[in-house]
Amino acid sequence: MASRSNKFSDIAKLLERSFVGSDSEITGFNVPMYALESEVIFLFQKKYVPQAISGNSKFWIVSEKVFTKDLADQCLKKNTTYILSKDPYEDIIKVLTWWIAQRAHRRGNARKRKSNLSTGVKTHRSSVIGYDTIIGRGTLVSAHAVIGNHVRIGKECVIYPNVTIYDNTIIGDRVIAHAGSVIGSDGFGFHKTKEGYLKIPHVGRVVIGDDVEIGANCCIDRGTVGETKIGHGCKLDNLIQIGHNVVIGPHTVIAAQAGVAGSTRIGDHVTIAGQAGLVGHINIGDRAVIAAQAGVIGSVDENTTVSGYPAREHHVALRREATLKKIIEQYDQKDKV
């Protein structure tokens, strides 16, 4: 027997809150910028209000601290249905935990389809491939690689030994994933309470474009909701961490041991040198350059080179270092006198 669809009113009942607007079927969760009409968004920070207003989602869970009369008017104008949340992060944990259970129930009732391996796919006998996974023509899956359920891998890809690809990941054509990399694991998301930390469930996925190369022992986290995206033509060196909901534009290169925290957006043709660290929720403009070991704590404009910690425009960082050197030399001279 087919399981029934889920409605927004089911979430209201779960949270023991009322909803304002009309009820309808929901199909999932996403970030405000990319959500479809039937996808629910969480609106907990004021800076994402413009994206929610300009976006397509008709179902919002909104923090009471963010909600205003103007926003209520926008909801009415957009015919948006919403629930007000007193404790946003506890609510997101409740809702996403419930959604995972609902999704597992629906999939449990559905017939498990065998994976579809196209002509010329080569798989090592020790590799593991889940159900309802499609792998394109000429792709190589090496020893001890593990590919989850509902995965899509394009043609002429190379999956080297011990690569793990989690459920629902989408990978384009001619992608190379080197040994030991993990694609689609949960992001580092926790809510601090008096009793300790509560895990925030992750229901998103990873989407990787064509002609991407991923070095050895990289970790690319799935979106909390929505997607972590690696644009076509990107090249990632070894030992790189990409956090949940990061979006990387086409033809960006990232050198070894760099780390990008969650929800940061990186433009096209960006260069990130080795051991650079980027905080979350910032924007890096097209063709920007992040120097080695830079600590980036704010957004970077396009065509800009930054270095140092905290990262500044490179010429400013050099001037600062030169000034500091002069001050130290002056003090050394005084000590000698």
pLDDT below 50 for ≥5 consecutive residues: which ranges? none
Number of strands: 35
Second-tier CATH architecture of the largest domain: 3 Solenoid
Give the termini separation.
91 Å
Helix content: 10-25%
Rg over CA atoms? 23 Å
Q: Biggest sheet, open or closed, and with what strands and sense? A: 11 strands, mixed
CATH superfamily of the largest domain: Hexapeptide repeat proteins
* Strand percent estimate: 25-35%
Spatial ordering of strands, largest sheet: 6-9-12-15-20-23-26-29-32-34-35
Query: What's the number of domains?
Result: 2
Helical region count?
5
| Assembly status | single chain
Q: Which structural class best describes the helix and strand composition?
A: alpha/beta
CATH topology of the largest domain: UDP N-Acetylglucosamine Acyltransferase, domain 1
Shape: globular
How confident overall, as mean pLDDT? 94
- CATH class of the largest domain, named Mainly Beta
How would you characterize this protein structure?
With 337 residues, the chain is an alpha/beta fold. The chain has two domains: 8-109, 3-Layer(aba) Sandwich (Udp-n-acetylmuramoylalanyl-d-glutamate--2,6- Diaminopimelate Ligase, Chain: A, domain 1); 116-315, 3 Solenoid (UDP N-Acetylglucosamine Acyltransferase, domain 1). It has helices at 8-15, 49-54, 69-78, 88-109, 314-336, and strands at 28-29, 39-43, 59-63, 81-85, 116-117, 122-123, 128-129, 134-135, 140-141, 146-147, 152-153, 158-159, 164-165, 170-171, 176-177, 182-185, 190-193, 196-199, 205-208, 213-214, 219-221, 227-230, 235-236, 241-242, 247-248, 253-254, 259-260, 265-266, 271-272, 277-278, 283-284, 289-290, 295-296, 305-307, 312-313. It starts with 7 loop residues before the first helix and ends with a helix.
